[in-house]
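note to self: dont lose this again. the chain is below, predicted strucutre after it. 495 aa total, dont forget to put it in the shared folder this time
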Amino acid sequence: MPRIPADEARIAGRWRRGAGTPVPTVDPATGRVLTTVHAVTVEEVAEAAEAAARAASDPRWRDLPPHRRAELLHRVARLIGEAADDLAALQTADTGKTLVETRALVASAAGTFRYTAAALETAEESITPARGDYVTMSTYEPIGVVGAINPWNSPVASDAQKLAPALAGGNAVLLKPAEWTPLVSLALGRLIGRALDELGLPAALLSVLPGRGSIVGDAIVRDPRVGKVTFTGGTVTGRTIAHAAAEKLMPLSLELGGKSPTVVLADADAEQALAGVMFGVFSSSGQSCIAGSRLFVARELYAEFVGELVERTRKLRVGPGTAPDTQVAPLVHHEHRDAVAARVDLAREEGARILCGGAAPDGAEYRDGAYYLPTVVEGLPNSSRTCQEEIFGPVLVALPFDDEEDLVAQANASVYGLACGIWTRDHRAAWRIARRIEAGTVWINTYKQFSISTPFGGMKDSGLGREKGRDGIRAYQRQKSLYWGTAETPLPWAN
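---
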């Protein structure tokens, strides 16, 4: 059993119990309450924002050169590595994910801090071409206070992808973890707090503020001291944040929902495609914004491919995240499991054929957990709600296509544009289709592979802006132009 953090939030750099509503955190595999975390109040958000603004302007942080800020990130990466086993076990207990996945996510978080530190140490400002008697320079400065609001499906990795570049940019951060899964974010906050203390930096550079998004998240977004918000989550919430940001003329980054197509052309390597399609939608129990939840298969291959896919899906091992052979773990919360089940019921109402799954698994070992069987459905038009709306669970809808034009038209007939997978031996076809698909990331003969060095983000209703990559730090800074006059004589108009 992992060590459960104390029921304390990090408010203005100090650990104490929030004064808001107590929220139980539940192990999705057993239904057992792990602990109760008290949410912070709107007043405590304001306190944290005020302290963050002071910390951001503190000379100990404000005047620190980039390579010294990189020391903080390197130290955090080392502390994450030292606590890797505890962090992975804690995230498995809190989210239900398999230990295989949470170990990978913790390693990814450490890697994010290391990469960002390296990018920070080598980041360059520029002297731009002059067009007169002056020297022009382009420089970057911190925004000040950044609000980071994260989802429940992969907290430690999502936290790192926001915290590392925001701190690298010279900012203070108000981190709001998801209401259902705050524990690993609080544990990460303790590690970062330790690194701040060891380096003699202002403690209020980081606050971790648990609570409901409609209360705590809204207070962060609307606080006048917050100069940027970065949000990962649902599109409806993203639109609400965007409206509030527009009122403040505040920059923001939004990584939102998806209904990503995964495509199997007639010449695809069937073994590679089957494994990739299943991994793309059923790993993480389908609780991933980039899940390949719409499967398009060439019509001449459709019956054989989908038939084999269903047989293999039935054999996937469903169980607790702590079991070494589990492939599909419980969903994050019983409420979410019920919401996924309701979406499958809607598919039935729309006329879908349930080829496998479509229910919670039988057996005493599943009785108290938030389990749902991996599910494949077919027989629906691409215009159906099941094909158009994000389910965020282990549910795959299969559709045939006739030719490349038909495929591209169906794949792009969605409000979302986050990701896509293409399985083919034909590199020319892969190139053509990849360029025509409206998605921020396209995988070819692979799926759900990520690199912190490669920008990530969505199109259309899947979000705004990009995270990761060398320019990821710049997203948390303001660009400024400097002109240095070199003329020996006064400006002409004064003569």
